[in-house]
Write a structure and sequence with these properties.
eight-stranded mixed β-sheet; 3 domains; 421 residues; Helix Hairpins; alpha+beta; Heat Shock Protein 90
């Protein structure tokens, strides 16, 4: 009490005790004072309960707000997610993809209509371009056949012509054959675009396939003396793959020709086995037509059999990493082509490689060769293994390349005891 008036005081009897409040009231008439002590435990309990209730209410409110916001955002963005999926499908070549004409949100009707109209126009243009390429290629075949027959007649009398006429005839023949090759490539591309390609897969031994394809490719180049070494990794002689042999030989011929034109010729062709789940360290860098990766080899391999990689290496200056995603596009002739050689190609060879490999459920990529040049790698799923065979049935060992001065370990192989043909 202060100055003869009533007063209160809060205190604790001990460090762990609950607070208490003391009330003092003076009684002047009898010269005394009245004191009473009240415990605050009930009030403290009430405040604690109230605090916990407020915290719980805050948590529940926050969770409900987050759930409501997520629901509202999903509902609002669901049509845009459909647009995104449709765009991805169209970029992958599914040009028949369209958005629903009556979206749930009336505000998106304009977007849906415009998007579908854009895809319609895109499909029309692509089909028109494909028809144009196909029609032009077909129309050019007849005059090219006539020109080719006339050229053969002139070449039969080559020795009787004057020197200047002989030179002109040689140039004419080279350009005509190059033109025929380009028209054939365009026809092949147009068939692939139209989905009318005929793939005949059969199971063959990969070593025999590579050996014969290299021989055929070098014969087509007309320079079998520059034949690259064929290097086999450990365990590849018994591997068998499902391929279209005509398409695979074309793939190898194109890669060997590309190495001859831009890398001074192929130096090594390596065959390496990869265990299941390895993945080969790369994906299809480009598919014919649009440069989009579409490899599908992993889905077709036998259970636990893995893949086999065929690499074609050269000693050229290599390919810039920024251009590796474009070299499989049609008619791509970047600055690197001018640096790597004569540039006599049509720009369709590697696009055909990517398309043929895709049709055989494989993948293709380009990387640096150990020598510093370019290394094109084809990855094919293994169909079966022939453990009872050494993988050389039907192979002509007399065609084996000279291994004198070659390193003991195969270039590009993961096996130190690999063999070399």
């Amino acid at each position: 009490m202060v100055g003869g008036s009533a007063a209160t005081q809060t205190y604790r009897e001990g460090a762990q005790s609950l607070p208490q409040i003391a009330v003092g009231v003076p009684i002047p008439s009898v010269h005394a004072a009245y004191f009473e002590v009240f415990s605050l435990s009930d009030l403290d309990h009430t405040l604690r309960v109230l605090g916990l209730a407020l915290i719980a209410a805050g948590i529940v409110t926050t969770l409900l707000g987050a759930a409501l916001g997520r629901f509202a955002s999903d509902r609002s963005l669901r049509p845009l997610a459909g647009v995104s999926r449709a765009a991805v499908a169209i970029a992958g070549g599914q040009l028949d993809t369209r958005l629903k004409s009556e979206p749930a949100d009336s505000d998106l009707v304009g977007l849906t209509t415009s998007f579908n109209a854009m895809v319609d126009e895109l499909q029309v243009r692509i089909e028109r371009e494909a028809r144009f390429n196909s029609d032009v290629s077909h129309e050019l075949r007849s005059p090219l056949t006539t020109l080719s027959a006339s050229l053969e007649v002139l070449e039969a009398d080559h020795d009787t012509l004057p020197p200047r006429a002989q030179s002109a005839l040689q140039l004419l023949g080279e350009d005509l054959r190059r033109f025929q090759r380009m028209v054939g490539d365009l026809l092949e591309m147009s068939r692939a675009d139209a989905g009318s390609v005929d793939v005949s897969l059969e199971e063959v031994n990969v070593c025999e396939l590579v050996q014969r394809s290299v021989d055929a490719g070098m014969r087509s180049l007309g320079d079998e003396t520059a034949r690259p070494r064929v290097v086999l990794g450990e365990g590849v002689r018994s591997l068998r793959v499902d391929v279209d042999k005509r398409r695979f030989e074309r793939v190898m011929a194109n890669l060997l020709e590309n190495a001859a034109n831009y890398g001074g010729g192929a130096t090594v062709v390596s065959v390496t086995a990869l265990a299941a789940g390895h993945g080969g360290g790369g994906v299809l860098e480009g598919a014919a037509g649009n440069g989009a990766g579409t490899g599908a080899g992993g889905d077709h391999a036998g259970p636990g059999l893995g893949e086999v990689e065929i690499g074609v290496e050269d000693d050229g200056p290599g390919i810039d990493p920024l251009e590796r995603s474009k070299v499989f596009e049609r008619f791509f002739r970047g600055p690197v082509s001018g640096r790597r050689g004569t540039g006599t190609g049509s720009g369709l060879g590697l696009a055909l490689v990517a398309e043929h490999v895709r049709l055989m459920h494989g993948r293709v990529r380009v990387e640096d060769a150990p020598s510093g040049g370019a290394r094109f790698v084809i990855a094919l799923p293994v169909a079966t293994t022939d453990d009872a065979s050494d993988g050389t049935d039907g192979m002509d060992e007399s065609n084996a390349s000279d291994t004198s001065g070659a390193p003991d370990a195969p270039v590009g192989s993961d096996a130190p005891d690999g063999s070399e043909w």
